[in-house]
Amino acid sequence: MAFALPIDGTANKKIKVTASLFMGLAHILFLRDRLKGALFALTELAFLLLSPSIIRKIVQLVTLGSPQPDLPIKMRDNSIFMLIDGILILAVLAIFAIVYALSVKSAEGTYREYCRKKDYPSQSNSLNTLFGKAFPIFGLAPSFILILVFVAVPLLFSICVAFTNYSAPANIPPNNTVDWVGLDNFKALLGGEASWSGGFARVATWTLTWAVAATITCYFGGLFVAVLLKETNLRISPLFRIIFLLPYAVPSVVSMLVWRNLLNGTFGTVNRTLMTLGLIHNPIPWLGNPVLAQITCVLVNLWAGFGYFMLLSLGTMTAVSQDIFEAARIDGASKFQVLRRITLPLVLYQTTPLIIMSFTHNINNFGAIFFLTGGNPTVPDSTTTSAGGTDILVTWIYKLTITLLKYNYASVIAVMIFLVLAPFAIFNFRRTKAYKEGEL
Amino acid sequence: MISHRSAETCNKIVITIFFVIISLFVIYPLVYVVSAAFSPGNGIASVNIVPFADGFTVKHFTYIFTGTEYGQWFVNTLIVALSTSVSTIVIASLGSYVFSRFRFTFKKSMLMSLLVLQIFPSFVGMVAIYVILLRIGGLDTLWGLVLVYVAGNIPYNTWLVKNYMDTVSKNLDEAARIDGAGHFRIYATIILPVARPIIAFLGITSFTAPWMDYIFPKMVLRSVDKQTLALGLFSFVTDKKNEFTNFAAGSLIVAIPFIAFFILTQKSMITSFGGAAVKE
After folding, report:
1. Prediction pTM value
2. How far, in Å, CA of B120 to CA of A327, rounded?
3. I want to staple A400 with a disulfide (CB 3.0 to 4.6 A). Which of A173, A410, A425, B139 is the partner?
4. Is A284 on the interface with B (CB under 8 A)?
5. What's the rounded Cα separation, in Å, for the pair A22 and A38?
6. Which of A115-129, A157-171, A173-187, A233-247 has the lowest mean pLDDT?
């Protein structure tokens, strides 16, 4: 059955064509690598057997089902199941294509080996290399499957939903179907419907303001305290350090809910204390007035977050080599000069990536807003958009999904967040050592 | 000389006073929670504005363990946190080992996609995760929640651990390979012990996260006896009712281990954070 192959490499094209024709064909026909060939062939066979249902799923992904008001609810087309299944099938198709490409590559590789050794690979040898090569596959398989099912597919799903009308009240499966609507949602949020686009602009502006303000206050607050701690070197400094670190150690659910109660406008402890002391006569609406609530958010976040940056700055300052300070002192630099010209620039330079990380973290800082204010107080457009005066984009996404069931708008916002954050991630990626040294 | 020294002393006093003021602000809410947990009142309105001025009772602690499912919530959270931590360590370290020590097709694009995937906060895909869990029967189960957490942890942490393993010399595994050790032996007996610091970091961060998360438990867990602590604590102080003292008692039990851990490890955290920032 097997044909003798020329050993000068001229049969490469023949191998490539045969391998591309049917997975594993070249392994079986020419390369006497029947085990591997059989595995590949079985994969393709299984794929071909399943192809009718694969095609059906893909058709459903395109149509998303049709409305069937006369059928009982359970038997109607469920567009959302169709969407998710379709995306999963597309992922499987992609994997199949990759395996196909690998099988052709493997056939070519085996042929090169054959030309070099002038003999067919022995079966036991092939089995051995198969196990050796299989280790990376087994090692990566759990990560790969989990990421595919619970990270990649949900993300693709969200991106797809941004282009559908999946929203209450008219398009919620299983009662009704969902349809593709192109860029309609983007248009609505970016200027089509006045209250929605107005709300979106307001929330987006506040999200950016919040992220910048929260990062800067925490960073410089932490740096300031760290410098003071380091420079004055009090005997009880370690005690202060522990105290300043306490808010960072408390789970944010707990600390934010505590602040929410302390700052409550009518019966909160802060107002009652200030009134008892006679400092104020009417309660201050800490969380009731939109602007004041925003300021409160930043301040409470400073309370919770400056300890972390103090820790980071102390860490970098400790890591700076003592030689530089020694040299500066010999040159007659004053304490203040050393601080301004050496310590601060070094700490600033080394913590820059952490500032960026903290900025992206704050854009997505669900807990700091949701537990403290719940996005409240309400502002004029809250009745339609459900977004309150302190809602940031992620808490708004949460509200749109859980209370309003406007999945389409929630997905559009998620896509926008991604577009804003992706450059930062790529920036941090390009800074990594592996990237710079060209290992990737 | 004397004036210089007295100026310094004066400076120190000013800074100490400054630190004391900050400390008061920092400690005030925390002290207030402790006092509220032992105060006889119920809502925040009934708790005296002066901490510890209401008298002392442990009835809130007895109440949360007998009148609510607090004990069950604690156990649930512990189970979720432990399983998430262990699974994340095993899966992420195995993947990192493969990425660090093997060359294969699509390696570069896989690493790149890990980085892109971790930009998204994982609850962006909330609806899809809900439907997928519904279809595999993972709704209202703790393992469903663990799956979601582990999957969300993997992209960034694989990247982190891979970078660490890259710095470990390859001579060690070369020597072991010559002695006839297989890939798995090398991973388990050589790479894992050397990578212990980063594995510990991974274990701690993935253990603490479930204690504070609210969104996913809220979505996945429906029955009262399946909930986690964040959900339970939140239910004490909703807009409809305010049981601040019960909330304070419950919070205290969770927060104390966290605070103790931080105080014990803060010295080593300063050096490791510093090291992490200086490297790269």
Report:
1. 0.82
2. 46
3. A410
4. no
5. 11
6. A115-129
In this complex, which of B111, B151, B211 lies closest to A150 when CB atoms are compared? B151
- Helices (H), ranges, A148-190: 153-161, 184-187
Residue A429 has pLDDT above 70, yes or no: no
The alpha-helical segments, DSSP class H, found in B38-179 are 59-66, 70-101, 107-117, 126-135, 142-166, 171-178
Report how far residue B171's alpha carbon sits from residue B145's, in angstroms, rounded to the nearest whole number.
Answer: 40
- Do B233 and A257 make contact, defined as CB atoms within 8 angstroms? yes
- pLDDT tens digit sequence for A75-99: 777 888 888 889 988 988 888 888 8
Nearest CB to B234 within list A80, A257, A434: A257
ipTM: 0.83
Return d(Cα A25, Cα A30) in angstroms, integer: 8
Q: What's phi and psi for A267, nearest 5 deg?
A: -120, 15
Q: d(Cα A390, Cα A372) in Å, to the nearest integer? A: 10
Looking at the partner chain, which of B108, B120, B215 has a beta carbon nearest the beta carbon of A366?
B215
CB spacing of B152 vs A150 below 8 angstroms:
yes
**Is the CB of B26 less than 8 angstroms away from the CB of A303?**
yes
Distance CA A109, CA A16 (A): 10
* Min Cα–Cα distance to chain A from B91, Å: 6
B170-193 confidence digits (pLDDT tens): 888 888 888 887 888 888 888 888
CA distance readout (Å), A411 to A183, A344, B219, B260 = 12, 42, 17, 41
For residue A273, which residues of chain B lie inside 8 Å, CB to CB? 49
